[in-house]
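Suppose you are handed a protein chain with no further information: no name, no annotation, nothing but its sequence. What can you learn? This example shows the usual starting point.
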Amino acid sequence: MVKLLDWHIQRQPGHTAGLLGEICLTARTRLELAPDKVGRLIRRSLHLDSALDGKTINTLLDITLPPSAKNASDH
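A reasonable first move is to predict its three-dimensional structure. Written in structure tokens, the prediction is:
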């Protein structure tokens, strides 16, 4: 999934916020997962397996994650 997300981010950066918002919304409505937990999971997964560097990942997610999926302690 991380490689697919990397691919999408690099080719369609303008759609990243919408994609992450949809992921958070779907996780909340179908799986009853809190958006902040989903945001932390996305951040951790990208840091572990993404080809992007850590600073880029943090900046990208700070800009594109929905407010409900952000947690100040995630860095």
